[in-house]
Structure formats: C-alpha cells, structure tokens
Amino acid sequence: MRFRPGLVVAALAILLMGASETRGQNITVTNDLVFGEVFPGIPKTITRKTAGSAAEFHVSGTPGAEISIDFTLPTYMNRSGYNMQMVFTDADCAVDSSASPDQSNPGADELDPWHTITYRLGSSGLTIWLGGMVIPKLIQTSGDYTGTIVLTVAYTGN
Amino acid sequence: MRNLCITAGLLSVFLAFSFARAADADQRSEASARIRVTATVIRPLGLMRISELEGRPDGGQVEDWLLRRPQAGDVSVHVAVDGETRSEFVTDGGFVALRSNDRPTDLFTAVLPAHRLFADLPARADSCVITVIYVGD
Fold this sequence. Notes:
A: 13 strands; B: Immunoglobulin-like; four-stranded antiparallel sheet
C-alpha cells in the first residue's frame, strides 16, 4: 500500500474538528427574586440562601469551560410612578457547579454581583443564587412593586 | 493521484480551521436572561397615639397607641425600633402579653379585646414604627 500524505493530513484535520466541538450556553430562570409582603418603613432582606425567595438561575453549557457572569441590577422597584429603593451588597451572590447544587452551602459564597464573576461550569452546569434588600419608605404607597434583573453569561475562552 | 490527495488534505485542514474558528466564536457568545423582582407593600391600619412620651426609671420611654379597628379580628403587630424589628417592646393593653424575646423577628398574632398597644422603647431609640394588619376575622 502506498503512503499517501494527503490522507494523513485529512485524518488529522478530522480529528482536529472533533476536538474543537463545543456546546452553546443557555440560562434557565428557576426562581424570581420575591420579597413578598413588606411594611412601610421596615427594610426586608432576602438572602441568597433563602430557598424559594432568592433569585435562582441555572446555566448550561460546555462542562469545564470558564464563563463570566455579569448582573445588571436595579436600584429601585417601581409601581406606576412610585418607586422603592433596593440594595444589593457585595456578598449577595453565590454559585455552585456541583451535580447537586446546595443553596445552603454553595461552592462559592458571598460573591459580589456588582462586578464580573468568573467560574467554571460543572458537568451539570452552574447554579447561581442572588439575594437583596428592599427599603420601603415610612410612607410607601401600598401595592405591588416590580423590577428587573438582567443576567449575562459568556465563555471566557479559558 | 498524489496531487489530488494533497489537495484534499489541504482542503480538509482549511475546513477544520474554519469549523474551529466558528466553534471558538460560539464559545465567546453570550446568553442573557431577565428575571422579575417583586414585593407587595402592605397598607397598615390606622394607629393613633393617645399619650405623650412618659419617662421610665431606666431612662426609656413608654408610648401608648389606640388601635383603630372597625371590627373584631386577629391582627398582626410589627414593631421596628430605629429600623430594626423589635417585637419584645410591645404589650397589648395588659391583657395579652406580646413580649416575645425568643422570636424577635416574627409577627405577632393576637385577638385584641383591648385596643391599646404599649410600646416600651429603649432609652436611645430615635424612631419607632408600629404596623398593624388584619390576618383574619
């Protein structure tokens, strides 16, 4: 059988193609950030560990790939012309990339949601929790207030 | 034939790098999600102060409110001193003891045949907010 360098190159190329296969990433919102009932003049905090009330996201993608996590956080909640102050501290975020994410004991805790967070996806992706505080005024108009948090993730290439 | 193989090989390398670049571009792509933040502000029932501040031997203050309730029913009483929940400072007209040092952040629930609430404030309190809501009749 004759040695064919072209076939060898082609085989290497096919191997290279297989090695560079990646998966796109996706975010699933598991839970909104819910403060429930609040009283005028009394701040209320939902911690990142408050199951069912803290914001919870799940990011899927290429296992082992590093991603950047950026939040766009509101400073007020709104209700038809009225607003109510919100506060996010530099320790209100937590993440866990284990197969069984544990909100009470996450893999990385007290992360700063105001700055970019980098973390590697686990085999099951990454779960992100976020807490916060709402500060109603002493004379806060009653009713339902809403706000929006935007979470953006991107592969860093590392 | 040899040239054909080399050409095919080079073409394959080109395609491989093209796919690799596309995959790399996919790795840098972003994903984003929006979530809602919700809260409901409760309208408190009216409270009317019926006595001015009175001095206490330890330097604290006693305040006395009349709870304006149009009908009988259970109420929850929430007390915040200087913005902090302090349930241990409230008693209910001397009938139902609302002191609860072991539950400093819980709401009280009590039937109030007596409509007077007393807030026993610490000495250096700057503000006290009492919030009362119905929880059922």
